[in-house]
């Protein structure tokens, strides 16, 4: 599986890294640890194989001296007094030409820190008074980081138990191979100074460290950072991490983002890297905003990637095998017969029995039972909207099996959920009706429903709804189509070529443009006819 953190970094246009939660494969960090300390001393060397260096003018060692931090006998004068004596010493693992420069600590550094916070911040990653060292990371990436038991125990119950509990360790060096050094430094920085230093490269591993050492305040900062950077192209990756780290609030936000931007989220690079449980958690939702055939296509892409991860050939049988129960969450009955015939029926993933059963479901009435869910997904939030394209109603519009059609386009993305149709002029009556929305250029049926409605004989419109919302894109031509079987009905006149709906709360305008739909038309036009109302969500 590809590294989720790398994908998150790429989505934020940061330099790539190899780190993942709980792993230490990266030697880079968003933390700025290379600047000089507050008193101008050299930055520390945290190599596990080199002698400890001071950070912020803490502790140096003159050539040939062997002093422990906190017990030195400084030879330099007070700050800004005599110059600090420096010494040069080769590290044991370095070549003879490779040396590190160390400087004597400034005497009475405490006097330069006016608050407890400043004094503790000075001790961060500092050998001064340190009584424990952590060997953080794996292999060549291990860093030796100094720390102070008291400071850690004050900020973390886990560290408190580690140093002061019934089974407290007495070791002065503790190995942490499962923690990323940059993340551990970010954790210590927070414990010593309340400062938060996280970025795209370190947020996941810092969240892991904060969870491991029970620092909920830092957890909250990490989650807030992820929320602010949540987008459709990283929603699946962050959902996987939120489930891994047991962050239900972040997981909920990821799912909401996927609901609103399903097509973009499915097209993102990180989608095929999610685990099966995360895939199923998404597929079982009733609120996804995408056609079912596109969900099936995304599931097939995931199955191909998963088969490769399991070192299987991407045959239809193996794709079905790795999908497992996720296949049953695809709602094939919500597809049009054209979509099903062109895609799933020919994929080889479904059995012959399943294909025949679904074709019968599409073509016969009453519809036989199928093994797949036929409950519509409702991806829509907010308030239902509608527009009416006629300003007057007249009587007697006849039907002979030909469809009433009108071509339309809109200025913004919407979801059409149904039409309002005129009913009988002869009193209460039942109608059979087939409604469709057709993509004009490709002549593809995007949504349809064979259904019926009852009318009361008035000139009102009567709602006929699609099985699922039909996505309408801006500046694209579509045909609204209704084929009615029943007695003569009312019809609209004085039609408008352009109709605008303005949202009361936001003032957002949705503009419809209507044109005559040539072809086999029962007579409906811009000026008069059927399909007086379009019902939609924005």
UniProtKB/TrEMBL annotation:
Q: Does the keyword Cytoplasm apply?
A: yes
Q: Where is the composition biased (Low complexity)?
A: 40-64
Q: What is this protein called?
A: BTB/POZ domain-containing protein 2-like
Q: List cellular component terms (GO).
A: cytosol; P-body
Q: Which Gene3D superfamilies match?
A: 1.25.40.420, PHR domain, Potassium Channel Kv1.1, Chain A
**Quick one: where's region Disordered?**
35-91
Q: Which SMART domains match?
A: BACK, BTB
Compartment annotation: Cytoplasm
Q: Which domain of life is it from?
A: Eukaryota
- Record organism: Sinocyclocheilus grahami (Dianchi golden-line fish)
Keywords from UniProt, A to Z, are:
Cytoplasm
Domain BTB, which positions?
A: 130-200
Q: InterPro entries recorded for this chain?
A: BACK (IPR011705), BTB/POZ_dom (IPR000210), PHR (IPR012983), PHR_sf (IPR038648), SKP1/BTB/POZ_sf (IPR011333)
Q: Give the UniProt record's GO annotations in the biological process aspect.
A: neurogenesis
């Amino acid at each position: 599986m590809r590294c989720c953190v790398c994908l998150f970094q790429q989505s934020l246009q940061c330099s790539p890294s190899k780190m993942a939660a709980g792993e230490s494969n990266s030697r880079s960090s968003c933390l700025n640890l290379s600047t000089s300390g507050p008193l101008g001393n050299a930055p520390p060397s945290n190599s596990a194989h080199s002698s400890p260096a001071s950070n912020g003018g803490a502790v140096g060692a003159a050539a040939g001296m062997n002093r422990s931090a906190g017990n030195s006998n400084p030879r330099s004068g007070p700050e800004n007094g005599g110059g600090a004596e420096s010494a040069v010493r080769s590290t044991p693992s370095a070549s003879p030409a490779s040396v590190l420069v160390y400087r004597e600590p400034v005497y009475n550094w405490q006097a330069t820190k006016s608050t407890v916070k400043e004094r503790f911040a000075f001790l961060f990653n500092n050998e001064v008074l340190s009584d424990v060292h952590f060997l953080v990371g794996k292999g060549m990436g291990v860093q030796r980081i100094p720390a102070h038991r008291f400071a850690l125990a004050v900020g973390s119950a886990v560290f408190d138990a580690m140093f002061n509990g019934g089974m407290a360790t007495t070791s002065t060096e503790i190995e942490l191979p499962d923690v990323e050094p940059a993340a551990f430094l970010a954790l210590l920085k927070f414990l010593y100074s309340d400062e938060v230093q996280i970025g795209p490269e370190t947020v996941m591993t810092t969240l892991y460290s904060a969870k491991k050492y029970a620092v909920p305040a830092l957890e909250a900062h990490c989650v807030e950072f992820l929320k602010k950077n949540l987008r459709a192209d990283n929603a699946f990756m962050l959902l996987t991490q939120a489930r891994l780290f047991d962050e239900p609030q972040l997981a909920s936000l990821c799912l909401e983002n996927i609901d609103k931007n399903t097509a973009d989220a499915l097209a993102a690079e990180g989608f095929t890297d999610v685990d099966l449980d995360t895939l199923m958690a998404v597929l079982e939702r009733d609120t996804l905003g995408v056609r079912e055939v596109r969900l099936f296509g995304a599931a097939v892409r995931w199955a191909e990637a998963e088969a490769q991860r399991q070192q299987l050939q991407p045959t239809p049988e193996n794709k079905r095998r790795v999908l497992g129960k996720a296949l049953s969450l695809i709602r094939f009955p919500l597809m049009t017969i054209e979509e099903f015939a062109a895609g799933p029926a020919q994929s080889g993933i479904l059995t012959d029995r399943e294909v025949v059963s679904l074709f019968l479901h599409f073509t016969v009435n009453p519809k036989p039972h199928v093994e797949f869910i036929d409950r519509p997904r409702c991806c829509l939030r907010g308030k239902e909207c509608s527009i009416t394209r006629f300003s007057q109603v007249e009587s007697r519009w006849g039907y002979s099996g030909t469809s009433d059609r009108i071509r339309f386009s809109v200025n913004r993305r919407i979801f059409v959920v149904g039409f309002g149709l005129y009913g009988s002029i002869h009193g209460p009556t039942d109608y059979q009706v087939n409604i469709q929305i057709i993509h004009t250029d490709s002549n593809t049926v995007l949504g349809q429903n064979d259904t019926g409605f009852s009318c009361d004989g008035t000139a009102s419109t009567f709602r006929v709804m699609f099985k699922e919302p039909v996505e309408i894109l801006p500046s694209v031509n579509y045909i609204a189509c209704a084929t009615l079987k029943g007695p003569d009905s009312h019809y609209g006149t004085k039609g408008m070529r352009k109709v605008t709906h303005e949202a009361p709360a936001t003032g957002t305008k949705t503009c419809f443009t209507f044109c005559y739909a040539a072809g086999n038309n029962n007579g409906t036009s811009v000026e008069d006819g059927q399909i007086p109302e379009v019902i939609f969500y924005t």
